[in-house]
Each structure stands twice: as structure tokens, then as C-alpha cells.
UniProtKB/TrEMBL annotation:
This is 4-diphosphocytidyl-2-C-methyl-D-erythritol kinase. Pathway: Isoprenoid biosynthesis; isopentenyl diphosphate biosynthesis via DXP pathway; isopentenyl diphosphate from 1-deoxy-D-xylulose 5-phosphate: step 3/6. Catalyzes the phosphorylation of the position 2 hydroxy group of 4-diphosphocytidyl-2C-methyl-D-erythritol. One of its GO terms (molecular function) is 4-(cytidine 5'-diphospho)-2-C-methyl-D-erythritol kinase activity. The active site is at 14, 144. It is an enzyme of class 2 (transferase).
Length: 301
């Protein structure tokens, strides 16, 4: 029996615990190393099957037309793959979004939404694609999407698509949204960006983090210097948060974060954040929370 809907599906934010630019390929893509860490704060998506074959985003997202939304583009690809595999098209689907993650924040909100959409539609449509097949389907849309489908803390290389599971501290994070949207292209195209950081090994990261109860001190974010020079609010947020720990930017910005060993410590600093910024705390996630939702849904069906 096919389920007709699935609501309250999490699309968690990610943090880049470090982000190194090791080079640039001939096609212009940058070679990166990073560790992706999911946290328990993000968007919520709601899915309802349609009688026709249309894919609709039913929530307005300012600045993002429905046809160019990663969610819609990802589902169009999955719909075609499902038809090719089973010989007939799956039903259409409506997607509503409770949007909590800012655009241009470096938190992977759009990519996480698309990954959640693919995983849920794969279940609702009974498409039968494996995790690896979903990751391969999603990669052309963006290198962050496969990470969310991978579904656990990961050491990433290449353009971000080569993933290995890795342990990271089970800690709390405080995240500040500086109130600006940072366009990724502006950072990667900047002449100020250094592209020659020496590669590290996954064992280097693991050895370092085993010594600490919180994430601190490993590597850096090579994109941060460019972002703070172009967007002063990012620099101001990092300067303020640095008084409380190892503050750094995630992704290409604009959000900045700092790790704490307990929720109490995170709360103490959160209460001091200047009112000009939006800020929140979040727990590190070892695995994607949608896995539990889909398992429960399968039992109910």
C-alpha cells in the first residue's frame, strides 16, 4: 500500500568544521577538503501526492522561482529515473516548506531541502533507488546534496562529492546569522582567495578531535578571509563570538559558529548575543534525522 503523504520531514543545517581549498581544476571547479557536520536545526518539509503528475512547491520562497528551486529540479530528475526504472511515471507531489534557514548563510539549506525531497519522494513513489543512486542523481545539482543523502558526519574531498564517514565531537554549537546573504560565486571568484592549502588526511582530523570534547583548533576556512573583507557584518560576528571560543564561518558564509561542551554553556553565550543578530543553538547530529522518520513511516504503512 502506497502512503499518500509524509509531513514534518527534517532538512537539517550543516556546518563546515573546516574548509580548505587545495587547488582548482581545469574546468574551474575548486578542489576542497572539509568536514560536514549536521545539526538539529533546519527546515521542515511536507509532502502530499497529487492525482496528476505535476511537481509543485506550494510555499513561496522570496527570490527563488518555483521552477529553479533545487527541490523541484531534484524531484524532476527522480521522477524521470522512476519512470525509466518502472515503465510508468509516478504520481505528482506537492511540497510545502517551513523555512528556517537563511539563504546565503553557508548552512546548506537549499541542498538539505533537495536531499530531503529526494529521500522522501523515493519512499512515497516506491522508486527503489539506493542511497548511492540518489547521491549520483543529485550531484549535478550541487556538491552538498549528496552529503545530506549520505546522512552522517563526513570528511569530504574533490569538489565535495568524495565522502567518508568520520567521528566528530558530540557537542553543542551556537550559530549567529549576521544578516547578510553571501553569494557563493563572489567568494570563489575572488582574486583574494588562496587555493593552495596543503591537503590533510582524515586521520589528521580524527587524531585532533579525539583530544577534545568540542570542535576547536583544526584547520581553517579558506573562504573566510574573502568573506569578511567583502561583508563587514560577517567580520563583526566572528570578532564578537571569538571572545567565547574558536569562532569561524561555515561554508562561503555568512553564518558563523562556535562549539561548546554543553547546552548550558551554549545558552549562557546565546543570552549575550547582541540583538542586532539572530542567533540559535543546535546539537551536533551523528546521523540524518530523516532516517528515523522514514523507518517509522515504513512500519506504519
Amino acid at each position: 500500500m502506497r502512503a499518500r503523504f509524509l509531513h514534518d520531514c527534517p532538512a537539517p543545517a550543516k556546518l563546515n568544521l573546516f574548509l580548505h581549498v587545495n587547488g582548482r581544476r581545469a574546468d574551474g571547479y575548486h578542489l576542497l577538503q572539509t568536514v560536514f557536520q549536521m545539526v538539529d536545526h533546519g527546515d521542515l518539509l511536507h509532502f502530499d501526492l497529487r492525482a496528476d503528475g505535476r511537481i509543485r512547491r506550494t510555499t513561496e520562497v522570496p527570490g527563488v522561482p518555483e521552477e529553479s528551486d533545487l527541490i523541484v529540479r531534484a524531484l524532476v530528475l527522480l521522477q524521470a529515473a522512476c519512470e525509466e526504472r518502472h515503465g510508468h511515471p509516478p504520481p505528482g507531489i506537492d511540497v510545502a516548506i517551513d523555512k528556517r534557514l537563511p539563504m546565503g548563510g553557508g548552512l546548506g539549506g537549499g541542498s538539505s531541502d533537495a536531499a530531503t525531497a529526494l529521500m522522501v519522494a523515493n519512499a512515497l513513489w516506491q522508486a527503489g533507488l539506493t542511497r548511492e543512486e540518489l547521491m549520483a542523481l543529485a550531484l549535478p545539482l550541487g556538491a552538498d546534496i549528496p552529503f545530506f543523502i549520505f546522512g552522517q558526519t563526513a570528511f569530504a574531498e574533490g569538489v565535495g562529492e568524495a565522502l567518508q564517514a568520520v567521528e566528530a565531537p558530540d557537542c553543542w554549537y551556537l550559530v549567529i546569522e549576521p544578516g547578510v546573504a553571501v553569494p557563493t560565486a563572489a567568494i570563489f571568484c575572488s582574486e583574494q582567495l588562496t587555493r593552495d592549502t596543503a591537503p590533510v588526511r582524515i586521520t589528521d582530523f580524527s587524531r585532533h578531535t579525539m583530544k577534545h570534547t568540542v570542535f576547536k583548533g583544526f584547520g581553517k576556512n579558506d573562504l573566510q578571509a574573502v568573506a569578511v573583507s567583502l561583508f563587514p557584518p560577517v567580520a563583526q560576528a566572528i570578532d564578537w563570538l571569538s571572545a567565547h571560543g574558536d569562532a569561524r564561518m561555515t561554508g562561503s558564509g555568512a553564518c558563523v559558529f562556535c562549539a561548546f561542551s554543553s547546552e548550558t554553556e551554549a545558552d549562557t553565550v546565546l543570552q549575550q548575543v547582541p540583538g542586532v543578530w539572530k542567533a540559535w543553538k543546535a546539537k551536533a547530529l551523528m546521523h540524518h534525522p530523516l532516517n528515523t522518520v522514514l523507518q517509522v513511516s515504513a512500519v506504519i504503512e
